[in-house]
Structures are given as C-alpha cells and as structure tokens.
Design a protein that fits this description.
118 residues, alpha/beta, 6 strands
C-alpha cells in the first residue's frame, strides 16, 4: 500500500488530521480536499521530490518556484524559495504562500510565469 485515503465530512477530516499528526508525526498526512485526508510514508512528499531535483540539477530551494492550488501543495509551497498559491486555492493555502496569483480560470499560471520569466 502506498497511500491511504480517508473521506468524510470536513469537520471529521480536520479532527482526524489533527489526531493522526499528533500520534504519527513520522507520516505524511494532508488534506487533498476539505473532505479527503491522505496518509503516506513520511518520505512521500512534494517537497522531498523537489529535494531530489535539487540534487540532480545542483540547485537550491531558493532557486525554486512552486505553484499550487490545494492543501496537498502546502509542503512544497513552504519549502520553495517562492511559493505561489493560485487564486482559487483555499484560504489556508493562500496564507502560507509567498504570493497569490489569479485563479486557474483566469490564467493564473500564465500570469505568474510571465511576471517572473518575461
């Protein structure tokens, strides 16, 4: 098994997330939606994937821009030198991001890439 997905009402998922993170700090536990909780090995995270790319390309996290729109993107938004939340991301995701761009429907990805790379 590589992942366990729990589904339920948002308040139950929030409670389960808090309880499991307290009891099992060595696991990667995050919400992928308000009603989904994903549980995986502690080595499975988007930020760990970025670390592998850093080693491969001899760069640092300060040279990385991470862009995301949901709870499962939070660890990499925090880890990257520049974490960008999409405008349609939940407020909790926007709060931890360094910057918020337009929504997916408003071409937010295009907007943020043009801002930094044109």
């Amino acid at each position: 098994m590589h992942k366990c997905l729990c589904m339920g009402e948002p308040q139950i998922i929030n409670q389960l997330e808090s309880t499991l993170k307290d009891k099992f700090p060595n696991l990667t536990i995050y919400k992928s939606k308000d009603t989904y909780l994903e549980i995986m090995s502690g080595n499975a995270s988007k930020s760990n994937a970025i670390k592998k790319l850093e080693n491969l390309y001899q760069i640092t996290n300060q040279e990385i821009m991470a862009i995301g729109d949901n709870f499962n993107d939070m660890d990499r938004l925090k880890y990257a030198g520049l974490g960008v939340a999409m405008g349609n991301a939940p407020e909790e995701v926007k709060k931890i991001a360094d910057e918020v761009t337009l929504s997916n429907n408003e071409d937010g990805l295009k907007h943020i890439l043009q801002k930094y790379f044109e």
